[in-house]
Write a structure and sequence with these properties.
There is one protein chain. This protein is α+β, with helices and mostly antiparallel strands and about 220 residues long. It has helices spanning about 5-10, 20-25, 80-85, 105-115, 115-145, 145-155, 170-175, 180-190, 210-215; strands at about 25-30, 35-40, 45-50, 55-60, 65-70, 75-80, 90-95, 100-105, 165, 195-200, 200-205. Helix 6 packs across helix 9 and helix 7 (about 170-175) packs across helix 8 (about 180-190). The two termini are about 35 Å apart.
Protein backbone atom coordinates (compact mmCIF):
# COMPACT_ATOMS: atom_id res chain seq x y z
CA UNK A 1 0.00 0.00 0.00
CA UNK A 2 1.24 3.49 -0.89
CA UNK A 3 2.45 5.27 2.27
CA UNK A 4 0.57 8.40 1.16
CA UNK A 5 -2.70 6.52 1.61
CA UNK A 6 -1.99 5.65 5.23
CA UNK A 7 -0.78 9.19 6.00
CA UNK A 8 -3.81 10.80 4.36
CA UNK A 9 -6.34 8.57 6.09
CA UNK A 10 -4.66 9.13 9.43
CA UNK A 11 -4.54 12.92 8.92
CA UNK A 12 -8.28 13.07 8.23
CA UNK A 13 -9.15 10.53 10.94
CA UNK A 14 -10.39 7.99 8.41
CA UNK A 15 -8.11 5.10 9.33
CA UNK A 16 -10.81 3.39 11.39
CA UNK A 17 -13.36 3.85 8.60
CA UNK A 18 -11.32 1.88 6.04
CA UNK A 19 -9.98 -1.46 7.37
CA UNK A 20 -6.53 -2.63 6.29
CA UNK A 21 -7.85 -5.10 3.71
CA UNK A 22 -9.87 -2.29 2.09
CA UNK A 23 -6.86 0.03 1.94
CA UNK A 24 -5.03 -2.61 -0.08
CA UNK A 25 -7.51 -1.99 -2.91
CA UNK A 26 -6.80 1.77 -2.93
CA UNK A 27 -4.42 3.46 -5.33
CA UNK A 28 -2.98 6.96 -5.74
CA UNK A 29 -3.38 8.87 -9.01
CA UNK A 30 -2.27 12.32 -10.16
CA UNK A 31 -3.89 14.66 -12.68
CA UNK A 32 -2.52 17.81 -14.25
CA UNK A 33 -4.23 21.19 -14.24
CA UNK A 34 -7.21 21.25 -16.67
CA UNK A 35 -7.20 17.44 -16.97
CA UNK A 36 -10.55 15.69 -16.57
CA UNK A 37 -11.08 12.87 -14.11
CA UNK A 38 -14.33 12.01 -15.86
CA UNK A 39 -17.16 13.56 -17.84
CA UNK A 40 -20.89 13.71 -17.21
CA UNK A 41 -22.46 10.49 -18.47
CA UNK A 42 -19.28 8.38 -18.23
CA UNK A 43 -19.59 4.96 -16.65
CA UNK A 44 -18.97 5.30 -12.91
CA UNK A 45 -16.82 2.61 -11.32
CA UNK A 46 -14.42 4.43 -8.97
CA UNK A 47 -14.75 6.54 -5.83
CA UNK A 48 -12.15 9.32 -5.49
CA UNK A 49 -10.81 10.90 -2.30
CA UNK A 50 -9.21 14.27 -3.01
CA UNK A 51 -5.81 14.45 -1.26
CA UNK A 52 -4.22 17.50 -2.80
CA UNK A 53 -5.20 20.31 -5.16
CA UNK A 54 -8.48 21.74 -6.39
CA UNK A 55 -11.32 20.33 -8.50
CA UNK A 56 -14.01 22.02 -10.55
CA UNK A 57 -17.37 20.25 -10.76
CA UNK A 58 -19.78 21.24 -13.51
CA UNK A 59 -22.93 19.89 -15.12
CA UNK A 60 -24.73 20.22 -18.43
CA UNK A 61 -28.16 21.79 -18.02
CA UNK A 62 -31.23 20.62 -19.99
CA UNK A 63 -30.74 23.73 -22.15
CA UNK A 64 -27.24 22.58 -23.10
CA UNK A 65 -25.39 25.08 -20.91
CA UNK A 66 -22.51 23.91 -18.71
CA UNK A 67 -22.85 25.35 -15.22
CA UNK A 68 -20.53 25.28 -12.24
CA UNK A 69 -21.78 23.14 -9.36
CA UNK A 70 -18.85 23.60 -6.99
CA UNK A 71 -15.12 23.81 -6.47
CA UNK A 72 -13.60 21.20 -4.15
CA UNK A 73 -10.46 21.15 -2.01
CA UNK A 74 -9.24 18.45 0.41
CA UNK A 75 -10.81 16.68 2.09
CA UNK A 76 -13.63 15.79 -0.31
CA UNK A 77 -15.08 12.87 -2.22
CA UNK A 78 -16.36 12.49 -5.78
CA UNK A 79 -18.28 9.54 -7.10
CA UNK A 80 -20.21 8.79 -3.90
CA UNK A 81 -23.69 9.59 -5.23
CA UNK A 82 -23.07 7.42 -8.30
CA UNK A 83 -21.81 4.60 -6.08
CA UNK A 84 -25.00 4.58 -4.01
CA UNK A 85 -27.40 4.95 -6.94
CA UNK A 86 -25.54 2.77 -9.44
CA UNK A 87 -25.69 5.38 -12.20
CA UNK A 88 -23.23 7.06 -14.61
CA UNK A 89 -21.36 10.14 -13.41
CA UNK A 90 -23.84 13.00 -13.07
CA UNK A 91 -21.21 15.78 -13.29
CA UNK A 92 -17.99 16.57 -15.11
CA UNK A 93 -14.98 16.79 -12.79
CA UNK A 94 -11.67 18.35 -13.83
CA UNK A 95 -8.53 19.57 -12.11
CA UNK A 96 -8.11 23.30 -11.54
CA UNK A 97 -4.59 22.75 -10.19
CA UNK A 98 -2.39 19.67 -10.27
CA UNK A 99 -4.18 17.20 -8.00
CA UNK A 100 -3.63 13.92 -6.18
CA UNK A 101 -6.50 11.53 -5.47
CA UNK A 102 -6.98 8.15 -3.85
CA UNK A 103 -9.14 5.88 -5.96
CA UNK A 104 -11.02 2.76 -4.91
CA UNK A 105 -13.28 0.70 -7.15
CA UNK A 106 -16.97 0.37 -6.47
CA UNK A 107 -16.55 -3.40 -6.67
CA UNK A 108 -14.05 -3.35 -3.79
CA UNK A 109 -16.34 -1.13 -1.72
CA UNK A 110 -19.40 -3.28 -2.31
CA UNK A 111 -17.43 -6.42 -1.58
CA UNK A 112 -15.94 -5.18 1.69
CA UNK A 113 -18.04 -2.28 2.98
CA UNK A 114 -21.67 -2.93 2.03
CA UNK A 115 -22.65 -3.85 5.60
CA UNK A 116 -20.31 -1.47 7.40
CA UNK A 117 -22.55 0.83 9.49
CA UNK A 118 -19.86 3.51 9.95
CA UNK A 119 -19.25 3.63 6.18
CA UNK A 120 -22.97 3.92 5.42
CA UNK A 121 -23.33 6.75 7.94
CA UNK A 122 -20.33 8.49 6.38
CA UNK A 123 -21.90 8.21 2.93
CA UNK A 124 -25.19 9.61 4.21
CA UNK A 125 -23.45 12.68 5.60
CA UNK A 126 -21.35 13.35 2.50
CA UNK A 127 -24.24 12.87 0.06
CA UNK A 128 -26.49 15.14 2.11
CA UNK A 129 -23.82 17.83 1.89
CA UNK A 130 -23.59 17.30 -1.87
CA UNK A 131 -27.27 17.95 -2.41
CA UNK A 132 -27.13 21.04 -0.22
CA UNK A 133 -24.24 22.28 -2.37
CA UNK A 134 -26.11 21.54 -5.58
CA UNK A 135 -29.20 23.36 -4.34
CA UNK A 136 -27.11 26.43 -3.57
CA UNK A 137 -25.49 26.21 -6.99
CA UNK A 138 -28.84 26.06 -8.77
CA UNK A 139 -30.02 29.14 -6.88
CA UNK A 140 -26.72 30.90 -7.39
CA UNK A 141 -27.53 32.44 -10.77
CA UNK A 142 -30.74 33.92 -9.36
CA UNK A 143 -29.17 35.38 -6.24
CA UNK A 144 -25.95 36.97 -7.47
CA UNK A 145 -25.21 39.47 -10.21
CA UNK A 146 -22.89 38.61 -13.08
CA UNK A 147 -20.04 40.80 -11.82
CA UNK A 148 -20.06 38.91 -8.51
CA UNK A 149 -20.03 35.57 -10.33
CA UNK A 150 -17.19 36.64 -12.62
CA UNK A 151 -15.04 37.87 -9.74
CA UNK A 152 -15.66 34.65 -7.82
CA UNK A 153 -14.84 32.50 -10.86
CA UNK A 154 -11.56 34.32 -11.49
CA UNK A 155 -10.53 33.81 -7.87
CA UNK A 156 -11.63 30.19 -7.74
CA UNK A 157 -9.75 29.32 -10.93
CA UNK A 158 -6.47 30.86 -9.77
CA UNK A 159 -5.82 29.50 -6.26
CA UNK A 160 -2.05 29.17 -6.78
CA UNK A 161 -1.34 31.62 -9.58
CA UNK A 162 -2.36 35.03 -10.89
CA UNK A 163 -3.14 34.09 -14.48
CA UNK A 164 -5.62 31.88 -16.33
CA UNK A 165 -6.32 31.09 -19.95
CA UNK A 166 -9.18 33.09 -21.43
CA UNK A 167 -9.17 31.48 -24.85
CA UNK A 168 -12.76 30.26 -24.45
CA UNK A 169 -14.82 33.08 -22.98
CA UNK A 170 -17.93 31.39 -24.36
CA UNK A 171 -17.24 28.37 -22.14
CA UNK A 172 -16.58 30.68 -19.19
CA UNK A 173 -19.87 32.49 -19.83
CA UNK A 174 -21.76 29.19 -19.90
CA UNK A 175 -20.13 28.01 -16.68
CA UNK A 176 -21.21 31.08 -14.72
CA UNK A 177 -24.61 31.29 -16.40
CA UNK A 178 -24.41 34.44 -18.49
CA UNK A 179 -23.97 35.55 -22.10
CA UNK A 180 -20.65 36.07 -23.85
CA UNK A 181 -21.45 39.76 -24.36
CA UNK A 182 -22.31 40.35 -20.71
CA UNK A 183 -19.17 38.51 -19.57
CA UNK A 184 -17.03 40.61 -21.91
CA UNK A 185 -18.55 43.83 -20.57
CA UNK A 186 -17.82 42.82 -16.98
CA UNK A 187 -14.24 41.85 -17.83
CA UNK A 188 -13.77 45.24 -19.50
CA UNK A 189 -15.10 46.95 -16.36
CA UNK A 190 -12.68 44.96 -14.20
CA UNK A 191 -9.84 45.90 -16.53
CA UNK A 192 -10.76 49.59 -16.45
CA UNK A 193 -10.81 49.41 -12.64
CA UNK A 194 -7.27 48.02 -12.68
CA UNK A 195 -8.23 44.64 -11.23
CA UNK A 196 -7.23 42.48 -14.22
CA UNK A 197 -5.46 42.60 -17.56
CA UNK A 198 -6.86 40.60 -20.49
CA UNK A 199 -4.27 40.07 -23.19
CA UNK A 200 -3.27 37.41 -25.72
CA UNK A 201 -5.74 34.80 -24.55
CA UNK A 202 -4.91 35.18 -20.86
CA UNK A 203 -6.41 37.01 -17.89
CA UNK A 204 -3.95 38.25 -15.27
CA UNK A 205 -5.27 39.18 -11.83
CA UNK A 206 -3.76 42.43 -10.55
CA UNK A 207 -5.87 43.10 -7.47
CA UNK A 208 -7.14 39.97 -5.73
CA UNK A 209 -8.34 42.00 -2.73
CA UNK A 210 -10.66 44.08 -4.91
CA UNK A 211 -11.99 40.97 -6.66
CA UNK A 212 -12.54 39.24 -3.32
CA UNK A 213 -14.50 42.23 -2.06
CA UNK A 214 -16.56 42.18 -5.24
CA UNK A 215 -17.16 38.43 -4.90
CA UNK A 216 -18.26 38.68 -1.27
CA UNK A 217 -15.62 36.31 0.15
CA UNK A 218 -15.54 34.10 -2.93
CA UNK A 219 -19.01 32.61 -3.09
CA UNK A 220 -18.01 29.68 -5.33
CA UNK A 221 -15.97 28.31 -2.41
Amino acid sequence: MDQRIAEFLQHHQLSDLFPEHVREDMNVATYSSSERLFSQGDKADTLYLLIKGKLKISMLSPEGKRLIVAFKTPFDIVGDVEYVRGIPFINTVEAVTDIVVIGISYDALRRNMADNAAWLQFLLQTITQKFETKTRAMNFNLLYTVDVRVASYLLAMTPTQQMLESTSLIDMADLIGTSYRHLNRVLQQFEQAGWIVKKRGKITLLDRAALLEQAGQNIYE
